[in-house]
Amino acid sequence: MASSMFAKARKRLHQAAKHLEVDPDVLEKLKYPQETLAASLMVRMDDGSRRSFKAWRCRYDDTRGPTKGGIRYHPKVNIDEIMTLAFWMTFKCAVANLPYGGAKGGISVDSKKLSPAELERLSRAYVMAFARFIGPDRDIPAPDVYTNAMVMGWMADEYSSIVGHPSPAVITGKPLALGGSLGRNDATGRGGHIILRHLEKELGVSPDKTRVVLQGFGNASFHCARLLHDDGFRIIGVSDSKSAIYDPDGMDPYAVMEHKTANRTVSGAPTNGKAEEISNEQLLEKECDLLIPAALEHQITDENAARISAPLILELANGPTTPAADAILEAKGTIVIPDILANAGGVTVSYFEWTQNKAGYYWSEDEVRSRLREFLVPQATVIWQTKQKKELSLRTAAYVLALERIAGAVAAHGTRAYFRS
Ligand code: NAD
User: Fold this and answer.
1) How far apart are CA 222 and CA 240, in angstroms?
2) Whose CA is nearest to atom 18 of ligand 1?
3) Which residue has the CA at smallest separation from atom 11 of ligand 1?
4) Active-site residue, from 29, 104, 286, 387
5) Of the candidates 224, 306, 219, 209, the residue with the CA atom closest to the CA atom of residue 261
6) Which atom belonging to ligand 1 lies closest to the Cα atom of 297?
7) Which atom of ligand 1 sits closest to the CA of residue 319?
8) pLDDT of residue 3
9) CA-CA distance, 167 to 216, in Å (whole number)?
10) Which of 59, 180, 255, 281 would staple 176 via disulfide (CB 3.0–4.6 Å)?
11) Which letter does DSSP use for residue 321 in this model?
12) What SS3 state is found at 169?
């Protein structure tokens, strides 16, 4: 597993540890996931046959609280990716200062090839297999790539049937009518927008001078694009899993989304001038002032990092940049606002949803939005100050903050130094 995604992710922990006094017990505790469960989900298909799907759930570390993390449906999902995503969630929850550890789950499936009824049976089968593993005080899933509010609603319903009473707090990102929170749907994109605008003076960003390219055009990406567009930023490129469009004259993200919803692709969407149809890989390298990777991990690698022209990257996707690419970007002065800060808005509003479910008392959208800002802005400020003070990249500064918090929780149980004295 020397070059696995997980091994690469763990490098970031060791980089951060160099800038803190961390008891070796803490690093030992964070070396491997706490527990990982694999299952095979048997699903009755519409044609009467049965098919099995591989599925996983990993709880990385629960020292700071119940574990939290999304469920991904993707044909390439595998245990290495799930462990890595759970590791990142542990650090993201600590960056956002939520009382959670990190987790992640997934099913290896091309959900676009399933009928709605097959998708429902698969989602319920996931909960049947993992019902003993998840729970409102143990491990709380949420949506991720190719899962949405309806999938979360089916899962909450299945879990409630198993335990014999409504249990909405078992999962977040649910439809509003089933205990979802106002403001959850756009929380990830909005969180990225809040952080960018909060740091804009330090970053030298101004809306009218900033041309934005986004990779992916799903939940996280669309909401960030529309908020930036509303503020006067110019969106000049977007993509989906099949294609990309680029127009230096700009485009209206609302119109692009309308086109994507009708045609299942951004290709052919209306733009202000004449759009160039290019590949996803080409889009990443196009000239722009702000690049927002918002699709999958490991898109910016040592192979293409030198050709990325954007001086600023806002990582809405989890893990879009490899550690080797980080080094190349850092050497050429590119500033990267790291995933564990940039996309923490989603898990923060998931936390709000969970607290509302537990209290049975629901907040207004304005309350959700203002509390989201209250949670994220101080973290962005501290991370920026740490970067300046210790002369670190924003990513290492964010890992330092998270590790400090996790280490504090681990050390509160007593460390090697305590027991030796
Ligand atoms: P989504 O399913 O809504 O959208 C994913 C988008 O990526 C789609 O537009 C899809 O066409 C595109 N895509 C898929 N494969 C691609 C590829 N190979 N190249 C380019 N585009 C591709 O998913 P989402 O919820 O927006 O998640 C996107 C990223 O944001 C993921 O990395 C996810 O882990 C991360 N994220 C999401 C949330 C959330 O609350 N939704 C929170 C934190 C992080």
Assistant:
1) 11
2) 241
3) 240
4) 104
5) 219
6) 32
7) 32
8) 66
9) 33
10) 180
11) B
12) helix
Instruction: Chunk the chain into consecutive blocks of 10 residues (it has 421) and report each block's average pLDDT, rounded to whole numbers.
Output: 80 92 91 97 98 98 98 97 97 98 98 97 98 98 94 98 98 97 96 98 96 96 98 98 96 98 96 96 97 96 97 97 96 97 98 98 98 98 97 97 96 86 74
User: If you measure from the C-alpha of residue 214 to the centroid of ligand 1, how many angstroms do you get, rounded to a whole number?
Assistant: 11
Pocket, ligand 1, Cβ cutoff 6 A: 143-146, 188, 215-221, 239-241, 280, 294-296, 316-318, 343, 346
How far is the CA of 215 from the CAs of 124, 226, 366, 394, in angstroms? 31, 14, 29, 21
Six token digits for residue 78: 């595998």
Q: What pTM was estimated for this model as a whole?
A: 0.95
What pLDDT is recorded for position 1? 42
CA 66 to chain centre: 18
Position of tokens 């990225």?
192
Residue with CA at minimum distance from ligand 1 atom 40: 346
- Report how far residue 40's alpha carbon sits from residue 50's, in angstroms, rounded to the nearest whole number: 12
Tokens of 243: 């294609």
Closest C-alpha to 168, from 184, 144, 146, 186: 184
Q: How far apart are CA 329 and CA 323, in angstroms?
A: 10
Determine whether 31 is an active site residue.
no
Rounded to 5 degrees, what are φ and ψ at 234? -100, 115
Nearest CA to ligand 1 atom 22: 241
